Amino acid sequence: MALDTDMPFPDIERRFADMHTASRTSPPWTKAERTALLRKLQAVIASTRGEFAAAISADFGTRAHEETLLAEVVPSLTLIEHTVKKLGSWMAPERRPTALTFWFGRNRIHYQPKGVVLIISPWNYPLQLAVIPLAAAIAAGNRVILKPSELTPRTSALLKQHLELGLGADVVTVATGGADIAAGLSALPFDHILFTGSTAVGAKVMAAAAPNLTPVTLELGGKSPTIVHEAADLEQAAGRIARGKLMNAGQTCIAPDYALVPRARTKDFVAAYTSAAATFYPRVIDNPQYSSIVSERHFERLAGLLREARNHGARADIVDPARELPSMEATSSNTRKIAPVVLTDVTEAMGIMQEEIFGPILPVLPYDTLDEAIAYVNARPRPLALYYFDTDRARIEHVLQNTTSGGATINDTMLHIAQEDLPFGGIGPSGMGAYHGREGFLTFSHAKATFYQGRLTLTDLVRPPYGARFQAIMKGALSRTAAGRGSRGLS
After folding, report:
1. Nearest-CA neighbor of 342 among 326, 366, 323?
2. Using only C-alpha atoms, what is the Rg of the chain?
3. Measured distance CA(19)–CA(15) in Å, rounded
4. What local confidence, expressed as pLDDT, does residue 85 receive?
5. Which is the catalytic residue, given 219, 230, 235, 296?
6. pLDDT band for position 329 (50/70/90)?
7. Beta strand segments in 203-286, E
8. Residue 489: band (very low, low, confident or very high) from pLDDT cuts 50, 70, 90
9. What is the pLDDT, as a whole number, of residue 460?
């Protein structure tokens, strides 16, 4: 394939051209071939999980091996196993009803590989968010170029080493490097692009893909709200919100970004949240189970948001049980760690309420009525996730029906992403399209509509020359539709 481009990565460009040619000239992989590749991927992740945990921790500065196992290794292996078990049914042609007019024909949908897929994965979960879409793309029969984040270089190097060796570079090529590599790749005529990252960069990826009319799936982020009803178990809710917020020190795209709490219960919620956080992390700075912020730039951004909020009147409750930080301080620049913080008395003018936080800082906003909380959420860009704590089914359905988000978890946080049979994706500025499970297979597949004509067919009765028989058949067809009732013919 000849490419009229000026790219900074000729080796990857040649690999793309080879993959593109193979996708057009080789027969699609069979179920057995796809299953074998998925099993190889599963074996790679299982056998190298210790290496990946060490590399991810080194890339962050500190991240618990246990957290990598919980949030990256197990979800990846579980999703691959689910995919292998379901692959045969997903690949099978899907029957669709055939209208009476077209009897004795048959309708089927055949799912075909799109061809060559680009996956641009982020730094916050550098293993899981590379492997899960990769498994979906392979299940659908595609060859893949994977561009992992430059902010986690050790992990990216391991992905390149183990994936290309374990599955073959003709199946998956890993393109390491910076933003220039991602930009150049996005401009190539891929058959599909899946990007996970910020809304701003997602817009650039979409713009780069537009000249080639390349379809894109964007998994972005935003300010995912949590609403706590006055009837909720406050301590339980606070503990579950703290667990979701503080995993990976808040560097999670679906982490609770802020909490809406009944005005009369705000102080109790703050106390319960800080107590739970202190229980989870009795030490913060000298604790290998509490993550560092991934880079100096991200650390300074969070420190700046916190400083600005406090300077403009926000109250900060800092969780520092071991007194490792100076009084009233929440940040440690030497370790790039930020202690869990609850902010109250925040205003909309503060930067902390304008952008996705992506760190262990939780603004808590009071509300007076549930509909007021719903209106607050709906007045802002549609989030990637929404969390609601309540036991009343009618109120739960009211919240779900009257808010729009990429996904939702009731009486907990983030767990909808762990369900193999649920799609994961955003809406509006939090993303477009979905993957995970069958939706991942469908995202990377072309659904080819196919009609099989029968030996006998009613359509042979409506051939020219048109006469009385044609008029009678059309009259009958029109009479079966609301729009055609009362029609007396075609004139």
Report:
1. 366
2. 26
3. 6
4. 98
5. 219
6. very high
7. 216-219, 225-228, 258-262
8. very low
9. 83
Q: What pLDDT, in 10s, does the model give residues 370-399?
A: 999 999 999 999 999 999 999 999 999 999
pLDDT at 439 over 80: yes
pTM score, whole prediction: 0.94
Q: What is the DSSP letter of 97?
A: -
Question: What phi and psi values does residue 69 have, to the nearest 5 degrees?
Answer: -65, -45
The active-site residue, picked from 67, 72, 253, 356, is 253
**CA dist 172 → 12, 117, 130, 167, 489 (Å):** 11, 10, 11, 7, 60
Whether 150 is catalytic is no
Domain boundaries, the chain: 10-220+436-447, 225-425
Residue 229 has phi, psi (to 5 degrees) of -80, 155
The enclosing H or E element of 112 equals strand 106-113
**DSSP result, 337-356:** EE--EEEES--TTSGGGTS-
- For residue 145, what are the β-bridge partners? 118, 173
Cis bond upstream, residue 104 (ω within 30):
yes
Mean pLDDT of 120-138: 98
Question: Half-sphere exposure of residue 350, counting CA atoms within 13 Å on the CB side?
Answer: 23
Distances (CA, A) of 240 to 132, 266, 340, 466: 25, 16, 14, 70
Q: Which CATH architecture has domain 225-425?
A: 3-Layer(aba) Sandwich (3.40)
pLDDT for residue 469 is more than 80:
yes
- Count of alpha carbons within 13 angstroms of residue 489, beta-carbon side: 7
User: Model confidence at 490, in pLDDT bands (50, 70, 90)?
Assistant: very low
How many Cβ atoms are within 10 Å of 486's Cβ, its own excluded?
Answer: 7
In 201-333, the DSSP E strands lie at: 216-219, 225-228, 258-262, 315-318, 331-332
**308 in catalytic set:** no
Flag whether pLDDT at 462 surpasses 90: no
Q: Which CATH code for domain 10-220+436-447? A: 3.40.605.10
pLDDT of residue 7: 54
- pLDDT band of 482, cuts 50, 70, 90: low
